[in-house]
Amino acid sequence: MLADDVYDAFVLVPLYMAMYMKADLYIHGKMSKRLYKNIVNYLQRILCDFSPDLSRVNVSVDGFAEASGEQTIIGTGISCGVDSLTTIYDRYVMEDDPDYRVNGLFFFNYGSCGDYGEAARRLWMERYRLNKSAADELGLPVYLVDSNLHAFTHTKELGGTQAGYFANWSIILGLGCAIKKYYTSSCYSYSQMMEFGRRKRGSDFAEYSEAYSVPLIRTERLELIIDGCQYERSMKTEHIADWEIARKHLNVCVSPVKGAHNCSKCHKCMTTIMPLEAIGKLDNFAGVFDLETYRRHAFRGKCERVAGNFFEVDNDPSLARFLTAHGMRLPSPVTAWLYLLPSRASRLAKRLVRKIAGENLYSRLKKILRR
What is the largest distance, in Å, between two alpha-carbon atoms of the chain? Predict the structure, then answer.
């Protein structure tokens, strides 16, 4: 599958690095002319608008060529999250057009499981084993791609992990001998991008511009399609709630336990479980969530949904609207703020002590208090 006759896979990450370091980029080889033109004419402008740390640079190549091979795969990623399963459900289970129906699944190691190193790789393999059982039931092959791209993108020198999106797209381009279409699952709806895009400037490239950036990442033979923007997240959860694959394999956690299983209390688990509770289908997911753990933390989660950004919660206002529209009673804003105030005040106090005392003294104080 690997396209070793063009350099398409080795342009996007160096481009981000070059723009950050204010250095021109020279590709000592050939690449897709369409990808090159889109980078030079459009993508650099979007990146400059996204972050003041990025600047336009000159991009030079030795020439243009297209990846060889017979491109037959219509692919998408499988993580068994809400976004991933929604794309698979719509583009495989419900799709009857062979020109658009998924026929292969992919699972990449590029930074989504953590910073570069063995810990992230172990988690990637644990998640693969969970995903593989779902793919087997679907009757679709899963192709693994291991990479070290996040050794370059997940660095403080690049100002965080925003370049990680480019690592993901680079791997897809690297499989240009086999893939003709690839659906990338979006976390955000079109309305969210329009409403909150400017607020995410400099912090989340996907929410800022994914809807119009991803279509630019293409060659003469490989097309990337952004999928999922037609739904808000709660709508996706409801959309797949009756699907047996989702009931058995849904995996959304950002703080996984016991071999990459859902913790049932982190913000990602909460934003998935609450819509299921609101539509009366929570018990059907008892195999993937610990419902007792959720119920012990549910009130806090609902307070965070109501309090929103006032308490630095990564909050989606559409979730609260979905919950109330389906009859779920949420705490009032005053109740939510009062409930969350002690823990948020404690967190603020810790930050102040750490800032004033310094990291070493702060660590020593924590040890003394624990004793």
Answer: 66
How far apart, in whole angstroms, are the C-alpha atoms of residue 192 and residue 171?
27
Q: Rounded distance, CA 168 to CA 186, Å?
A: 13
pTM above 0.90, yes or no: no
Q: How many C-beta atoms lie closer than 10 Å to residue 52's C-beta?
A: 9
Give CA–CA dist 106/77, Å, rounded: 5
DSSP symbol at 186: P
- Residue-range domains of the chain with CATH: 1-251 (3.40.50), 252-371 (no CATH)
User: To which H or E segment does residue 226 belong?
Assistant: strand 223-227
Q: How many Cα neighbours within 13 Å face the side chain of 185? A: 25
Nearest to 223 by CA among 78, 9, 45, 34: 34
How does DSSP classify residue 24?
-
DSSP string, 255-288: S-BTTTB--S-SHHHHHHHHHHHHTT-GGGGTTT
Measured from the Cβ of residue 125, the count of other Cβ atoms closer than 10 Å reads 15
Distance CA 49, CA 90 (A): 33
Task: Please report which confidence band the pLDDT of residue 312 belongs to, taking 50, 70 and 90 as the band edges.
Answer: very low
Q: In a 3-state reduction of DSSP, which class is residue 203? A: coil
Amino acid at 236: K
